[in-house]
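Quick one: structure tokens for this chain, please?
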Amino acid sequence: MDDVPWNSTPLVGRSSEMAALLSAVDDAKTRRAGAVLLSGDAGVGKTRMLDEVATGAHERGFGVLVGHCTDFGDAGLPYQPFSEIFGRLAGDRPDLVEGVLTNFPAIGRLLPAHRLLGAQPAPQQEGQLDRAALFDAVLGGFTALSTSEPLLVIIEDAHWADDSTRDLIGFLITRLTSQRLALVVSYRSDDLHRRHPLRRPIAEWSRNPRVRRVNLLPLDADEARTLLHSLLTDPLPAEEERRILERAGGNAFFTEELAAAASMGDNDGVPPDLADLLLVRLDPLSDNARQVARVIAVAGHRVPHTLLTAVAKLPDRELDDALRELIDAHIIDVPTSDRYYFRHALLAEAVYDDLLPGERVREHAAYVQALENQTVAGTAAELAGHATRSHDLATAFEARVRAGQEALSVAAPQEALKHYEMALELFPNAAPTTTVDKTWLIVDTATAATLSSQHLRGLKLLRKALAELPEEAPKRQRAELLLPLADIALIIDNDQESNEAVSQALKLVNDEPASVFKAQVASLYARVSDALGRPMEAERWAHKALEIAREAGQESAASDAGITLAQLRRRAGDPETAAKQLEEAAVRAQLTGDPAAEVRSRFLLGSTRYEQGDLLNAKAALSFATKRAGELGRQWAAYGFDARRMLALTQFMLGEWDDASATARTDAMTPAAAGAALRAVEFSVRGGRGDTAVAEEFEMSRKWWDLDIMLPIIGLQPAVDAYRALDKPAAAEKLVADVTMLCADVFQTEWFLGRIRFATLGLQLLCHRAVGEPSAAADLVARGAELVSMGQSTAEKGLPPGRLMGVEGLAWLARLESEWERLRWLAGVDAPTPEEHVAAWQRTTDAFGYGYVFEQAWSRVRLSAALRAAGRVAEANEQAALAAEAGRELSARPLLEEAGGGDSHGASALTSRETEVLRLLAEGRTNRQLARELYISEKTVSVHVSNILAKLGVRSRTEAAAVARRDGLLEDA
């Protein structure tokens, strides 16, 4: 199991870094598993240090496994380093691997023998591999191997890792406990630009207490000089030595290369370009050695001896001599396995870039021939890359298709999409004998796009395919394109397009005998009918879908219909039965291997609890749905992404704002549309904490609103609050109007339930204006009457007959009516009695008591003001204190300031307007005089005075004036 490369270059310095790495190894021996992230610039010495660590681990009785990530370009082989690890282990210790595969059969899908071009595809009944099963199997395999001897697993060059490899590394890191296992992951830090996909995972992994970070810096002057002296057989003149050290800049590899060039007598003409400098190493070599170096460079990664033999086309003796020459010249290395590789990736890149275009094409063509004939083992991704670069487009097409299938089978949809899209571009170049059906390829590409949360991409592809389909095309072919089109359109709320597509598909298959496809069309028609508010039709077609599936002998094909029936039960007012049916559906889908149905049912279970106001159980269900979606490779697909977004919203409501931010956090690998949607959730946290920049950022997200209507629905409130804080009510009112119009257009009705909250936001803006525009009181109240009427009408007309409003809707309806009372109270127009005002806000505070911490706290602030105006000061102080406590826990500065909890006394507790009121109050002004001087209503003055008394902790205006003079609160007023 040992895979310890040997390196003759001395290791200079690095004592503290080596100590950290070997400490992790020693910890693993005592069952304290851990990981080390080793970073550094290209050429700084990461691989040399890993050689030394591997040797040290070997001496301590460890087994050492090494896997490498490779730069495949646009799309590569998912889980490549782990395939390399288990593949090499299978070759070296087949007995050991056999035992691992017996207990963890999913690992078999990673073995090179199962991923090569000649391998048999996975049996149909196995279907797409459950990513959770694969990840658990890899962890279990490493754990099992570590029982016989402690294990060091090294993953090199993670900056080239694919999405799936990064996810698996992250999974392993989170599961490190008491195994005898140490994991070391290396990457080039200079490659990690701001949008590099590894930046976010590195930050997340680093927060794990079992992870250590080791960064290799350039060697200092003394260390670089020591390294240079160790590399030279004869000393150099002081001036030449100084030039080498300056050029190398502490980079160990550059120092080696400059020293090697100098030792060959090139003291005066050192090339200024590093690539030229690197290539000087090849000049003294024989023609055969240089040719073999070119062949290895074209491979792009480690080359097995059999493949090298087939491509180099040299007699065995000449090939051996060339390899020996390259090894002796320290150009290439070969570990204990039979794979050759350049000692430094930069040298390989320089050799490849030095090839003439014709040379590159010929060398890639030689690899294609060897891989296509299966003379040697290789993957479809490798073949596709070589075929593309050799302009063998027919072969490239077939290989891209196979690579896409393989990527999907291991839950890597992003890589599958890249391969499939390239295959579609190459389809005109496909061989006449190809068996790949274009309709199938288009549908699979759209599926991969949907799984990657690139729904619009998939939708455009299907629309284009249908537009180009001849009128005389078979009915089934057209239906096969219409079905995924309807599904994706429904996901992004294009309900009308979805309905038209699925209705057309239903007509096309109506005369067909029962089949799985026909059941799927009927199931989707039921779901679309439900979305469009046709419950009776939805129920009829859901049952019809189940009947067709049973007749076809595949009842599981209509599992989606069963979920729709549960949804209908939920909408009919029986959420408990619906929840039970959804739990059962999720289990059935998991057992039958239907990931789409499983994720949908788990998401709907969470949303059912959310609608009931059972936020804790909703959070648990949504968290599990999000986890399963990730394990199944559906984290960006419909319902998988929805579960994550709703989880973040639920955490926000529960007051778990840091968790909500973490759930909504995005990185460079997050699809753009999904990133915009998640940022809208994060706006709620940032806005609640007083970040007014969310208003502008929300405006900038407009281009995504049509694609995902939930984005503006979620992001509107924090943006409006930000505009209100900036005293820009007109901009906020326009925003509310824009989002309202968009929602009415998307939902094809003005009575959408979100309008209750939108009307409430409008009333809050009118209250804000009433404070500063007392002369406009009558007009503001008239506008408020329109808003409250619209909100109340929506509550009456926005639900289908028999359906009940959820607790959140009821809370916002209560808030709507309370803001209406508050507006009339502030404006002094048809004002409510103090008792009516208090009662309204008490109802609202109670309504948000189901767990919505932030909104309940704001309701307490308003209730406190109403109580104070009613003369119930002790109760007012109690409510303000509760709101302030929530504000402190949430770090919600605006809430805390409004509740008077930012500071117990002093000017910092008062707003600028309250300070102005306090100054005039101290001069003896009455409320009427204050209102006239400040151009506000007496009611507004009363609110300000009440807030001042509460914040200063006094009972009367006289005491407030005395405290203000005593504490100097009026000096800057």
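The beta strands are 34-40, 63-68, 151-156, 181-188, 211-216, 303-304, 332-333, 339-342.
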